[in-house]
């Protein structure tokens, strides 16, 4: 019995409160979130049918039913697409596990950027290649390191960020969900999630939310031990044909104090 769809529905239902969907609060609730029958009513389906979906006893909901449930759960476009993917998993024969690598062309490109911190990570957030500027920016940006483990288990990484740390952690976990899609039974993913769930209560809580959100560009507010404060834009670019690999590039506003600090970091 495939329960991935049911786990997602239950997680998202438990995040909604009655007042979020215009329902009156009726006394104390034993469990958080909406009741199944409330969600079913909002989606316009029977409570029994919705229960079968959550329990994994119905594996073939229609597109209309999925769209109705997505609206009832107030899912955005990306989360709705994830819902459809869970309901229509692409069955594929898993290849033998092997060490993932960045292509030689991508490796040469990253290493040619002597002034710009850049690295490539796998869909499970393993660093596949990092140039010297990236490693100088953050010692965790080096080949073979898993950035999820670093974020949740290495206090030195947390200390680098001047702000937005909780949002960064939540976005990292949601980004992992987006990259792996319905393929949550991948052995390597299961091993990573199992380890982090045991070692980090924060990861366990965020993973249980089933948030799905691709991470793209933004600004990182860093405190570097040698050059001080850095406000750096980061771009996350998909490496085509590389099964979820992401090229991460940091850059500063021209002529800014952060640009001067990056130049000093390169010199050091």
UniProtKB/TrEMBL annotation:
SUPFAM superfamilies: lambda repressor-like DNA-binding domains. Residues 33-80 form the HTH cro/C1-type domain. Transmembrane segments: none annotated. GO terms for molecular function: DNA binding. Pfam families: HTH_31, MLTR_LBD. CDD domains: HTH_XRE. This is Transcriptional regulator with XRE-family HTH domain. It comes from Kutzneria kofuensis.
């Amino acid at each position: 019995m495939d329960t991935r769809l049911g786990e997602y529905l239950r997680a998202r239902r438990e995040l909604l409160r009655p007042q979020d969907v215009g329902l009156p609060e009726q006394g104390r609730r034993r469990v958080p979130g909406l009741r199944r029958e409330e969600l079913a009513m909002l989606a316009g389906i029977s409570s029994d049918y919705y229960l079968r979906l959550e329990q994994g006893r119905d594996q073939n909901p229609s597109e209309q039913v999925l769209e109705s449930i997505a609206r009832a759960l107030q899912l955005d476009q990306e989360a709705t697409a994830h819902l459809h993917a869970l309901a229509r998993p692409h069955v594929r024969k898993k290849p033998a596990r092997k060490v993932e690598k960045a292509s030689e062309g991508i490796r040469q490109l990253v290493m040619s950027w002597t002034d710009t911190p850049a690295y490539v990570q796998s869909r499970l957030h393993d660093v596949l290649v990092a140039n010297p500027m990236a490693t100088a920016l953050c010692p965790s940006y080096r080949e073979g390191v898993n950035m999820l483990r670093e974020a949740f288990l290495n206090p030195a990484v947390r200390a680098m960020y001047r702000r937005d740390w909780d949002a960064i952690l939540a976005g990292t976990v949601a980004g992992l969900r987006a990259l792996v899609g319905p393929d949550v039974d991948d052995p390597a993913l299961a091993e990573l999630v199992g380890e982090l769930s045991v070692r980090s209560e924060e990861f366990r809580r965020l993973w249980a939310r089933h948030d799905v959100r691709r991470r793209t560009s933004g600004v990182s507010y860093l405190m570097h031990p040698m050059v001080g404060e850095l406000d750096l834009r980061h771009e996350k670019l998909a490496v085509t044909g590389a099964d979820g690999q992401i090229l991460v590039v940091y850059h500063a506003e021209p002529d800014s104090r952060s640009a001067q600090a990056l130049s000093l970091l390169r010199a050091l």
